[in-house]
Amino acid sequence: MTGPSPVLGERYRRALVDAAQWHETQTRKGSTVPYVSHVLAVSSAVMEDGGDEDECIAALLHDAVEDCGISRATIAQRFGERVADIVMACTDDTGGDRDNKAPWWSRKVHHIEHLSRFAAAGDLGVIRVTAADKLSNLRSTLDDRDGSVFAVFKAGLGGFAWYHATFCGILVDALRTTPDPSGSGRSPAASVLAGRLESSMDELGARIDRYRSDYAERIVEVLDRTVGVARPLGWGAHDPWPWFALDVAHRARGGSVRVEHVRAAEQGWFGGVQFIDWE
User: Fold this and answer.
1) In the prediction, which pLDDT does 189 show?
2) Non-local CB neighbours of 223 within 8 Å, separated by 6+ positions
3) How big, in percent rounded to 5, are the helix, strand and coil portions of the chain?
């Protein structure tokens, strides 16, 4: 007697093994937690939102190109073109050298614009995997209660807040307006991922509001120095300065802003290019 067909089959099992092997020496930023915990969480979130096997596999492998140096060709050969396409769509700075990446700001602006095109096209697979990735990152960061975790990010508190507030808003809108092509009849508004992501964004927003209140005087001090600074090519339509000022103030922990706080932020955000005169 033939048993029921597996919901997730042999391809998914192979992807589990590959993900565990490819990330086996990596840990989550600022911790000793194995990095594979993240890809498992992303795949789980995609499953719970109704993702199909390709999407669940892509979730396991979404960082394989960017963080492990695995080629697109390898992923396509092992798991098919659709999985490879989703992974590449979710990969930051796909055209660059992973050991010599472009400055953080221009790279993130490009990635948001890149993924926005998939959202506009209604590519639910890419939207789901990306949203699950951002949810996992948000939750692990929000679980840190004293704010020390932001020191492990290149662009600190301000960069993390801008990137996730901007990107997650796009993803929530896309999850709630893109029909599910599986024909399951699920209303887009009922997306589990959208609800979880929106709730985490609200939590992040409340925390950022407290920081802005605590650091208000220092933020204004930094913003005053950005007046008239020209926007270089590659910055896109986004304005970094309100978030950059928040980051500098947080690096100073609300105390006197010194030149080293400004230069450290410029290094993290813009690759060391100095835009602000603080001598």
Assistant:
1) 55
2) 241, 242, 245
3) 65, 0, 35
Give me the count of residues in the chain.
279
Rounded CA separation 268/109 (Å): 14
Which tens digit of pLDDT belongs to each residue from 219-249?
999 999 999 888 777 777 889 999 999 999 9
Q: For residue 34, give the 3-state DSSP assignment.
A: strand
Tokens of 197: 């992501």
At 29 the three-state DSSP class reads: coil
218-225 long-range CB contacts below 8 Å, 24 or more apart? 218/245, 218/248, 218/249, 218/252, 218/254, 218/255, 218/257, 219/245, 219/246, 219/249, 220/245, 221/257, 222/248, 222/249, 222/257, 222/262, 222/276, 225/276, 225/277, 225/278
CB 76 within 8 A of CB 91: no
User: 190 pLDDT exceeds 50?
Assistant: yes
- What the block records as the tokens of 115 is 């993924």
Tokens of 106: 């221009």
Tell me the pTM. Answer: 0.88
Q: Once rounded to an integer, what is the mean pLDDT over residues 152-180?
A: 91
Beta-carbon contacts of residue 77 (< 8 Å; ≥ 6 apart): none
The string over 85-106, giving b where at least 16 C-beta atoms fall within 10 Å of a residue's C-beta and e elsewhere, is bbbbbbbbbbeeeeeeebbbbb
Tens of pLDDT along 24-76?
A: 999 988 788 999 999 999 999 999 999 999 999 999 999 999 999 999 999 99
Q: Phi and psi at residue 136, in whole multiples of 5°?
A: -60, -45
